[in-house]
């Protein structure tokens, strides 16, 4: 799990919401380690990052995790991280999840707003069915290694444990799991993992994932609040828009489009109705921000297409239908226009390897 001593942190390096780093600092203090000791140990690899900054470069976060392991000697660090997780660990996204009606609705928000926490370029979150169960997986992109971003066992363990810990916290229920999988080899003592998750834990499984019964998706959330949820989702859109250069109106349209695409309802009229304005008003607001409805629609489809094509369980036709195309050929033409290649050729180069 050793990290390189020199980390190349450029403006294009993916970042992580600082709430994640703050939770790590809180945790090491519980172990009796001052925050200053952790930052001193990792200083050479933090490249000037300070805890007061709103984002932390991913290599700097990995360096903090490695230093925390070295200084505490706690191989169960990721599990303890998950035990202490609260909504603020995931910044405004955590509050958006907490105020949803049920667990399924909360999980559905993650692909839309995950950029609040993890910038694109390192990982993706996939949600799928596997027999009678549903699977929530954290997938490291193949291009991450090409960019010099290492796989971190501790980060993987902390995130999977966080999903479980946050799920229990926002539902106020035990949340029984069917299985937990990690792509890396088992630690010397895997018993704490079985005790923490309360289910079989498989290592060297080729993926990082939680499996649980589909019935749990209907589990209501303790602090469900429709009005506050709308406000938190709006804040999440604004946070993403500020970092990406996208205007709030374009980000809002993108968020409205995602659930409409599979129903073939991703039209100007449907989106405007969902926003409580007329189609003309929506067109005018987009135009004032130098956007068009078609441009936002194409961009949303292009981004989601690349997410769906990484999932080997989805056929090209499945992806076309999820994106609102009536025919696979229409999707293929659009994809070739976006990326200069066919969906099948792109998938060969980029799809996540199956287990």
How many β strands by DSSP?
7
Secondary structure category = alpha+beta
> Strands across the major sheet, in which order?
3-4-7-5-6
General shape: globular
Q: Mean pLDDT, as a whole number?
A: 88
Portion of residues in helices? Answer: 40-55%
**Contiguous runs where pLDDT drops below 50 for at least 5 residues:** 1-11
Q: Topology as H/E string?
A: EHHEHHHHEEHHEHEEHHHHHHHH
Proportion of residues in β-strands? 5-15%
Strand count, sense and barrel status of the largest sheet are:
5 strands, mixed
Number of helices: 17
Distance from first to last alpha carbon: 22 Å
- Any idea what the radius of gyration is? 21 Å
Molecular structure report:
- There is one protein chain.
- With 355 residues, the protein is of the alpha+beta class.
- It contains 17 helices and seven strands.
- It has helices at 18-30, 35-42, 58-72, 77-84, 91-98, 103-113, 142-146, 153-171, 191-197, 226-244, 248-260, 268-275, 279-288, 293-309, 316-322, 328-339, 343-350, and strands at 15-17, 55-57, 123-130, 133-140, 179-181, 201-202, 208-213.
- A five-stranded mixed beta sheet has the order 3-4-7-5-6. A two-stranded antiparallel sheet has the order 1-2.
- Helix 4 (77-84) runs parallel beside helix 8 (153-171) and helix 10 packs across helix 11 (248-260).
- The longest helix is centred in the middle third of the chain and has 19 residues, at 153-171.
